[in-house]
DNA sequence: CATGAAACCATTCTGCA
DNA sequence: TGCAGAATGGTTTCATG
């Protein structure tokens, strides 16, 4: 592993370890060790280095939101009156738990958010009662995801 | 935990367990047990049920793409000549590793994708050489995420 | 990066309420 | 049906080479 000022290079073994763990964060290290032919301790050492280098941002359990009753995913482009009100708007958006992502974007809008809702009515209520009233928001454009056809992380 | 035909209800203890694991998938079950005051065995039982019910979709290691040299995230809206070419287009998009999400959306475009690139030039090359040439794609609109200000899962 | 020992954790089973 | 306790087998960590 080579560390430049900003970018880190990881070797093939690191990649192989990460590939397994990106698929299943709870996979036992010893099983991975057996598959790639080095000791479990060596993998732990590499993982510690990758963590220190900031390559590993953590691990997460993924919850199936559909099963919990959230069936509508939507993207909402938000126009702001002034780009300078971005900080305030994001602060408000953060308070809405259904907002999963928020991006400050180039192009038409100032902000693009991804949100998850129980149904279309829930989405409409959030738009009307939570998002549109935010100070500085002038207009929104909504795109409902009828189907998420790809969902993955970067391939190593 | 109550199981309806399609939607699952999870109680406060389930939520607490999941909250810990959504934050850190490798957190030892016994540590969680100690914090919430029930036995490790009980947590295992609950996790098994949640898994059977489909609430848990898996666990993932999260890799910091910026550290690996991917500094540009972009959303691309794709217009298709015919909506019916969606399936073929998605098949091609799946072959592009930089495409992390692909949604079939209502609104202006047929498809909205999220992709990650090394830099703006890399993004441009992917657009020109990989995405625009896909059969059925008539036009694209690109939104670069200057900053991702929110990134999280649904709150339980 | 490997080894081996020690500490720790996960998992399963049994009994109890 | 849900939980606790105990037992065992596996995992992680640490020291050392």
Automatic annotation (TrEMBL), chains A, B:
Looking up CDD domains in the UniProt record yields: HTH_ARSR
Signal sequence span is none
Q: Give the highest taxon in the source lineage.
A: Bacteria
Tell me which residues make up the HTH asnC-type domain.
10-71
Q: Any idea which UniProt keywords this protein has?
A: DNA-binding, Transcription, Transcription regulation
Q: Which Pfam families match?
A: AsnC_trans_reg, HTH_24
Keyword Isomerase in annotation: no
* Name the record gives this protein: Lrp/AsnC ligand binding domain-containing protein
Origin species: Flavobacterium rhizophilum
């Amino acid at each position: 592993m080579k560390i430049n000022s900003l970018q880190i290079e990881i070797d093939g073994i690191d990649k192989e370890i990460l590939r397994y763990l990106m698929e299943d964060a709870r996979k036992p290290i010893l099983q991975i060790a057996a598959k790639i032919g080095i000791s479990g301790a060596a993998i732990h050492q590499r993982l510690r280095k990758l963590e220190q280098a900031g390559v590993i941002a953590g691990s997460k359990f993924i919850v199936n939101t559909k099963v919990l009753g959230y069936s509508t995913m939507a993207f909402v482009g938000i126009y702001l009156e002034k780009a300078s009100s971005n900080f305030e708007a994001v602060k408000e958006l953060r308070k809405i738990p259904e907002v999963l992502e928020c991006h400050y974007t180039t192009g038409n809008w100032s902000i693009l958010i991804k949100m998850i809702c129980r149904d279309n009515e829930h989405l409409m209520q959030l738009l009307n009662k939570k998002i549109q009233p935010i100070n500085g928001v002038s207009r929104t454009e909504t795109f409902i995801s009828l189907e998420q056809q790809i969902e993955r992380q970067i391939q190593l």
